[in-house]
Structure formats: structure tokens, C-alpha cells
Amino acid sequence: MARNRKVAAAASVAAMALLVGACAGNGGTGTTDPTTPASTDTASETGAPVEPVTLTWWHNGTGEPLKSFWEGVADEFEAANEGVTVEVQAFQNEDLQRTLIPNALNAGGDAAPDLFMVWAEGEIKAQVEAGFLKDLSGLTEVVESVGGSGTGWNVDGKQYGIPYRYGIEGLWYNKDLFAQAGVTDLPTTFSEFDEVITKLDNAGVTPIGVGGGDGWPAAHWWYQFAIKSCSADALSTAASTLDFSDPCFVTAGENLMNWIDQFEGDLPFQANPSGTPAQSVPASSAGLLANSQTSMELMGTWHRGEVAKLVPGAPADNPPAPEWLGWFPVPDIEGAAGAPGAALGSGDAWGVYVDAPDAALDLLTYISSVDVQTRFAATGEIPTVAGAEAGITDPVLKQIADGTVNASLVVTWLDTQYGPVVGKAMNDAIVNLLFGSGTAAQVPEAMNQAAATL
Amino acid sequence: MLEVGFFSAPALLIYCAFVLLPVVLAAFYSFWNWNGLGPLERFIGFENYTRLLSDPVFHTAVKNNFFIVIASLVVQGPIAILIALLLNRRLRFRGLFRALVFVPYVLAEVMAGLAWRIILPSPNPPAVLGPFDTWLEAIGLGDLRQAWLADQTIVMWTIFGILTWKYIGFAIILMLAGLSGMPEELTEAAAIDGAGWWKTQWYVTLPLLGPTIRIWAFLSIIGSLQLFDMVWIVTGGGPLHASSTMATYMVEFGRNTQQIGFGSAVAVVLFIISLVIALVYQRFALRRDLQGSITSGVK
Predict the structure, then answer these.
(1) ipTM score here?
(2) Class of the A170-339+421-452 domain?
(3) CB A447 within 8 Å of CB A47
(4) pLDDT value at position A300?
(5) Residue B5 located in a structural domain
């Protein structure tokens, strides 16, 4: 269906990346691999005949400006590397990850793309275990340049994916509606957050939109309470053992429901939260925010683009983000057991097929260069390579990039972290807890049951 | 014999490659715990089936499929026959009416589904209503306003309404084709014998329309059992799985969670249910209609 690439992101995992001071990166071999200089053609330098190579590169940037951007990058690489042809193709996100890539990898050989998007943690692990991905640990400089954001694509100490976009989620809000309701200071704790919600409601504005129909957007509220109710240790143990019997997972649901139950009716959410999709249509949660029908929404970095598309009268190509759109990090819960300042986030990365030619590594190195990443940032994205953040022009994105670096702990989206089976069971149970007849205890119960089927 | 082989070989080949082989493969995969990546390593017997048959969401899905099967037969059938009888009379603008009822059927499923997904929900009721609710208000039926796609208790009725709008045109065209093949002498004879319009339809037209109705019912049942696209586009099976069907369940829990073995088990169950119903229906309801086409001659 038309859910888009951001759904994907929702799939992400539990990498606890200590981003502060992460610049040191995750080790690697310590020496620079001589086969990996970007955009130089070693064959022509030595005068040997150039063997033509064709690389296939699959990504999910079906819309502009990304589609043309990646095509341009491919052209630049071809121009700098004689004999290399890059066939770059964009596919719809779910089709790419759930059908095209698995089938192509199973078929192997020429059918498999050389360079393609990989999701983090539980998702990439399945591909690594099946032996489809090349170990990229040898690209020491590249691995180091992305720092702690690469943790989610590190399996058993080896690097299998190089992230190119990475950021934490937060609350996107409508500055005009906040002003109209008399909210002057952004909340930093949940009790201040409650006051803001009450003020908005009193002013006749729906406080928070949530796309409960798609499951994951509602589940992210539970994730937020989980990372604030569970210690970093409890979270990483659960992620590695897929055992969710730690009582903090029940507490998370109880805290979430205590928070929601203090409000009346569907509040703090809009009417019919469980039937509202997240994106694409005017009556989606993104559409409600874009149409000033709600004043806040918890979402990842992609939301800027999703909202921009649905603002009434927005142009079809490259719609600008509305000026009233602001962002703030999810407030802390006072007295909660989890690490203060912990945030949820993740990103997208490139993986290389196990039998791909070396030129694919050169291409990856080029894509991950500061130059390309800086230009990537300028298209309205948050880059991963140190130094490329200079390309971020949008003040809101700058704020998110800072928030990502300043978070005490970045936890990958829980559903990505635990993999699709447990992730799906978890999201369904959370939606049932929020909008159906489920209980807080049933969420970890469903997760344990799903883990048993793996 | 050579000609038989020559003409049927391509069709047989395609049938084997794209129908039989996938069925056999699905049945095979359904006994494995497999995520679609790498070799099959974990044989788990009937575990996928026991898990499937004990899942309350799958129960809802099966119930929803049968709800659509029965509601289509009971509601769409009579409406289609009535409209066909009406359109079969000499009317002004008859061609226009015929075209109009057929228009939704011609629309692509995804387009129609997206349109409904935009028309039905109200963004912020009661302050901001969606197009459909606004229209209800405008004609004074504001009290009937509902959370059409968000209310678990009515979402299947909404889906049924959309399916009726979409497919009734096809049923009407079928019925009209059946009616046009009917010799006028029979209705004239009935009229001469003093039968009124209603009596003529009941005693003469309807019995003659029997084969058409039975074929339409067959297509409708199979379509309802395999219902996927409209539900997937309009609700995605939600809210809280209230509008799941067997096919959306298969995609949601098989493909999207990368449990290819489990998804194959769902496919096999869906296949068996459809096959049994199709065979039973052909054996009992369609037997007379198919006689000429299947047996070699009239006995």
C-alpha cells in the first residue's frame, strides 16, 4: 500500500548509540584499506586495460529531490571512474525491502543489486545470517566518519551497513496554534507537557495527532515510555535475548495509560485515533497537522517532508516546509527509571552484496564522502558523516541534528530493533492497549509469544 | 491427438508454471519456519497451521470474508436484478443509465479505494467534516454521520457499501446480457395469458435468468473470499484488525513480517477454502448450467 518510506524507518531498532563523543567510531582494523579510495580509477592509473564494470544501486528515493540527487551522484562517479557504469534505480520502500531485495538476494549473482538500502538491527541481522552482505569493516575511514550512528548496522562486531541519514524523533508542532493557545515556553518535562496539552485543549485546538491506523505511529508513544521506564541495561538485554519479562516493560504501558487516562475522551489525541492513517491523505495524522487541525505529532525526521506535501496548496514538486512548523525533543518523565535525555531514533544505511565487485565499495566510499553528504544534507536531510552537517540549511533540521548529538542515549526504534515478527506483535498489542481492550501486561506477553515463534 | 497436444501445450505449460507450481511450493513452504532469506533449515510440521488456526485475528478475517460473501449474495443480487429489469425496459436515456451504473466497475480498484479513503473520514468532527459527511449534513441526514472507517463495529459495512458500489455494475451487465438473450415470445405469451409485468418477471423472466444468476453468484463468492485490494487500500485491515480478510492477513503477517512459511500456510488455507466452496458449488448449483459445456453430448 501507499505507506511510504518513513514507515520503514519505523521499523528501526535498538541500537543504543552513545552519540556524544561517538566521533571515535567503532574501531575497525585501524589501517586504511588501499582498495577503497573513492573516485579514482586504479586501473587507468597503472595503464592496464579498463575492465568494464556495471554496478546496480537500489534505493527508496522515488520522489524529488532525492531521485535526481542520487542519479547525479551516480553520474559523477561514472565520470570519475572509467569503465564503470552505475545503474541506479528507485523503488517504493516496502516493495524494495520486503519483496525486491529478498528475492534478488536469494537469486544471487547478477540478479542481486550491488549496493542497496538496509534497515538496522533485527532487519540487517537476518540478511547477515543468510550470508548476503559484505563485511564493510575494512572501510575504516568511512566507518569512523559516521561515528556512533553506525552502531545499528554492526552485527557481531562487524560493520555491514553505512548509514547515510540518521536522526531522533521528537514532537513536531504548529507554532501559530501554540501562540494562539498562549503557550510561550516549550515543555521539557512531562508535567509541563500536560499543561501545554490542557492549554491547547482549552483554546479549542486538538493537542496531538496520531496515525493509530498504521500501528507504528501509536506504538512510538509506548517506545518513548519504555526508554524512559527501562534502564539502558534492561533495554540492551531485552534486545539481545528477545526476552521481555523485565517488569519495566509492563511499567512502560502503565505509565503511558496513566498519562493518557488523565485526559477526557480521545484526548490528548484527535477523534478516531485508531482509524487515522499516518500519511499521504488529508485525513491522515500528517494531514491534520498540515491543515492546522492538530497542533503536535510525535514523528521522526521525515515528517517535515510529509507535512509539507499535505499543506493546502502545496506544489507537487519539492514543497517547502511550512514556516509555522517547529520541533522539540520529547520531554523527560520526572522520576522515571530510564536515562534522562534518552531519545529514540534511527536511519537508513547502504549495504553491499557479498559478491559485489570492488567498485561497489568505491561507490559507497564516494557516496559517504563529506562532499556528497553535505550536498545530501542540503536537500533537507540529516547526514551521518562528520562535517557534512554544515550542509543543513533548515533551522529545524539543524535543531534535530543537534538533539541527536546531544541525546544521552539514542535507542533505535524498538520494532526495528526486535525484528519484524516481534515488532509487529508489539505494535499490534500497543494499539490494542491504547485504543482497544488490551492491558499493559499483554504487550510484553505478546512480544514474548512472538519471539517464541522465531 | 497431435493437434490437441499442439494447441494445449502452451496453455498447459503456463498453467503448470504459474498455477500448479506455486500452489505446490506454497504447500511445501508452509511446513517450514522460513523468513524468505537463505536455505530452508527449520522444518516445523504443522506448527504454522496450528498457530494460524488459533489466532483470533485470523478468525475475524475468516468471519469478515463470509460476511462479504453472504451480504453480496443477499443484497447485491436482488438489487442488480431489479435494476437490470428496469434497464431492460424501453426507457429514455437507457444507454446513459447503463453506462452510469457500469462506471465504478471500470475504475481501477486502487483509484476507487483511494477516493473513498479521502471522501469518507472526517478530519476533526464535528468541526471539520470530510466530503461524505458534509454531503450528509447538506441533505439533512447529519445524524447518520459515522466514523465510517474508524469504528470497528461498522467498518465492514462501509467496506461492503464500497464493494457494492464498485461491483453492482458488473452484476447488472451480466443480468442484462442474460435478459437480452431471452426470446420476447415468452413474455408476450405470458401477457396474452393475462399476466401483469410483475407476474411475468417472477414466473417467466427470473427462471430463465437462473443460469446467469448462478454464474454471477459463483463469481461473487470467489471474489469475496479472495477480497484484498479494496480493503488494503481503504483500511489496511484496521482499525484493530476489524476489517482484516484472509488475504490482507496473509500479506500483513506473512509478507510484511517476513514469515514466508507462515504466510504460505495462510495461502494454503485460503486456497483450500476457495477450492472446496468452488467444487461444491459447481457440483450442486452449476451442474445443469455446465452440462452442455463439459460433457461430450446430450444424453
Answers:
(1) 0.85
(2) alpha beta
(3) no
(4) 92
(5) no
